[in-house]
Amino acid sequence: MANLGLKERYDFQQWIIKDLKDKNGYIQRDNAQYNPRLAMDEELLWDFLMDTQEETMDYLLKKLSKETIITLINKEIVKGGFLFALKEGVFIENKQLRLLYRKPATSFNEKAVQQYQANRLSVIEEVVYEEGGRIDLVIFINGLALFAIELKFNPSGQSVQDAIKQLKGRNPNNCLFRFEQGVLASFAVDTMEIYMTTQLKGQETYFLPFNMGKGEGIDMGSGNPHNPNGVDTEYLWLDVLTKDSILQLIESFIFFEIDKNDAKKRTLIFPRYHQRRAVSRLLEDMKVNHTDSNYLIQHSAGSGKTNTIAWLAHSLVSLHDDQNRNIVDTVLIVTDRIVVDRQLQDAVRQIDHKNGVVKVMGDRETSSDLADAIAGNTKIIATTIHKFAQINQSNWMSVGNTAKKKFAILIDEAHSSTTGSYMSSVSQVLTETDTEDGTIDEIQEVTVADAIEQEIARTGKQDNVSIIAFTATPKATTLQLFGTTQPDGSKAPFDVYSMKQAIEEGFILDVLDNYTTYKTYYQLNKVVEEDPELKTTLAKRKIAKFVELSDENINQKVEIIMDHFISHDIMAELGGQGKAMLVTSGREVAVKYQLAFEKYFKDHSITSIGTLIAFSGKVDYLGREFSESQMNQFKEEHLKERFDTDAYQVLIVANKYQTGFDQPKLVAMYVDKKLRSVAAVQTLSRLNRIFRGYNKKTFILDFKNTYDDIRSAFAPYYRETILADTIAPSDVLKLDRKIDEYGILDSEEVQEFNQFLYQEKRSSREKQKMVALLNKGYDRVKRFDEKEQLSIRKVIRGFLRMYTFLIQATAYQNEVLHERYNYLQSLVKMIDVRLGGNDFTIADKIVVDYMKHKQTGSFRAVSELEYQPELTLPKPSLSDVTGDQEKHLSEILDEMNEQLNLNIDQQVGLSGAVSIRELMKKNPRLKQSARVNSREDFVFAFEEEIDNALIEGYSQSQDLYGALLNNDSFKKRVANIFFDDVYKSLKGSEEL
What we know:
The chain is 43% helix and 16% strand. The protein is an alpha/beta fold. The termini are far apart. It holds the Pfam family HSDR_N.
């Protein structure tokens, strides 16, 4: 075989050095100039100090020798840490010496620019750091060893794995590698891949991939793209190791993460390639476009999203364009969790400790505190979406002159809370306008047309607000709002770190790799002589719920779960720390499961397995009232901590902990709930966290879903998600024309309704007039038969949904269309097409004669998931809707036995005061108010929303609701009957 004539040291190494010198301005130094006792090039350090801080150096040299100054600098580095010394300098004789100069945010200060340019980057090859120990390359900044690089040359038969092995053999106690005092990172590099670590610990050293990702867009996986003009890893020295990049890494990226349980345990965090790429790309784009655009970052679980958000926030507050104008005044980090995640709080605070830079809206802070922070000079604010909703309701006037400020909003996990009313709250808070004397511009007369234009401006894209949404699983609506428009008109994320790449790089597990499915078979029979006619769909739902809650069903599944749990020795996984989650379809099912497990453990004398339950509110069962805290015997806020102990192995959940719950000890999941699309991915992904030090395996046993359905749900998120179709004005206008064809709207009535709507205050008579205007439209709807009413409701809902996203994602404005939007929002609530046949009970009419759960398949992810990147927005069909057919109960039972439709739905068919109570419980504004306010403060929001509930439900009981609207005293007396019930229910409900 012909010899390539290429050698690692004399070719690959020299290519890198030449590029560093010729393209990045590096100085090449010799090993003889390296001091292995101090891990520095003393001559370069001295030159830097004398050139940049001559006055201070002259003062020190009058008292100390050169050797003493160098020794004292090293002592300061050893004492306080290398990173701290680089960022803050060192103090000698009470004089500060800067070891580097940051890049100034603007070019106004010429001296600061000159100091930055004076930083010296250098490289030494074949560095002998101790007797018998040599490293291929060391990168220095101002003579201080910064990065170590071990090279391997693939054509010579070695790879990056050999470099990793060699670095693991280095002496971690040598001053060059000593943690916190030596180099900030060590890189293992070959011609195809790069890995890095921030702490050498012998064979326990953990290396992270530092690769770009192989392929583009939908084909992105692990590794690096092929470079036709050189080696695939040249981005390290041509991009990452440039002066600007290195100084940015030191100033804005690299930081110590402090263990929450042990303050002495510190981890040096260095950004992975995709984290640095995403932040850098966003900064470059916003430097040019300011706050003109919104952005979507699709980063998989395991991507380090929390740190990426924190890095971006800190970088944005100092970002300026080429004309030295700042891009944003304030960065808001908004999460859809109930409280700001502790990990996010810590990351944001630990990157920069300067007072006043960061304000976290924790449990004790109110929406008023958030308003004050926004109006003030705080640079970074971390909060929940719920506090924004509260500002919009009651405290928005205190926000002040926000329209003159520029904001970047970083959304942590952009899902349901970023669609519709919540994001409207954020936009509204940040776009209120002030007059010159500082008062809110409300005292001037505003026409309805002006008010509508202002509302469109509030809920649409604002010039002073740029929203950057982070999520692993973008829905079609998320892409529509935040995606970047592609040349073909589709919407795509601005930056992608795919699930495929995360799995291949070993940051998360493929949860589809060990998947078992079951199917339930059962036979139902009547226990009544009569054969009543019932509505098909409703009867099926009631039967499905009856079967779901039957003791036989729950007990058999508990047997199957425990057989799997014990036979697969789940507890023995991860060195005896393995845990499981049971996902149920509802609160009552979860309660019955918990009771069934307790009975099973008692009957089988099992004491080594502990279960916990997670659900919201209270459940009445067997004459008893059950709550999460009562069944677990501790408060909800302690659940995560308790479940992490050895006392508990199984967590039973009902619509809780299916998203955002990070517990790497979870190895098994039992699914007794129908999962679709994003919900399927988010729920099953609770298992995908790796557990350091163990070869973790995952198990899923599914009673409700097929393996093909689950694979289909994962397909759009495996790589890059693309929105194939976007909402255009023509889509909305098409639905608007369809509504016109029904002839249910009168333009004069719509305009009059909006006149009342935009009045600051409305009398009871005016509210009744609004109801009367809605009734006129509703009367026209009632002229149609039930089948047509279903069609009308479907078209109106489609119009409302699509119009909402149109005005949020575009600058589209149409006053007439917006007036119709306002009117239809109220009208659609009055259209009740579920007429007749609703008030019945199924439990006394049927029994379960036979039930069996049969395994239908066991699956392994033996081949790559078929990628289906495109999502489409849900658009309502304009075809007719088939109405429910009345069928005999016996026929319905036959269909159920064949189709086994077990979808669960909640029936709402109440009247009078009970109807008002339920309407109030569903009110999103009240939900947010109850979460953050005391009972006394909640009264104000409650009283404001009573009229809206009466208007919404007016058609159900016109006489009663009309009287309440006209009599404040009577209205308050009725409302007080269920005030406590509403408050307690909303206070205890799960997060939205």
